[in-house]
Task: structure prediction
Amino acid sequence: MVTTHFAIPSMFSQNDADAVMFVLQDLPCIHVADVNLEQRSAWAEHTRFISPEEIASALEEAGYLAAICAS
Result:
């Protein structure tokens, strides 16, 4: 498993955090994910069958610009 962290600067409310979490949970190959509203960030533990860029793209399609954070 790979863990990828994302900065999500447009996540301001609990509704935003819930929407981001929904996107992450709905994607295939994601084992565990969590959102930190206070830090405007999220992380996902996933297999190599989905790339961090694909996850970020799904978040962007949902209206949340997501930057992949360096580990």
About this structure: The longest helix spans residues 14-26. The CA atoms of residues 9 and 71 lie 18 Å apart. The helical segments are 14-26, 52-61.
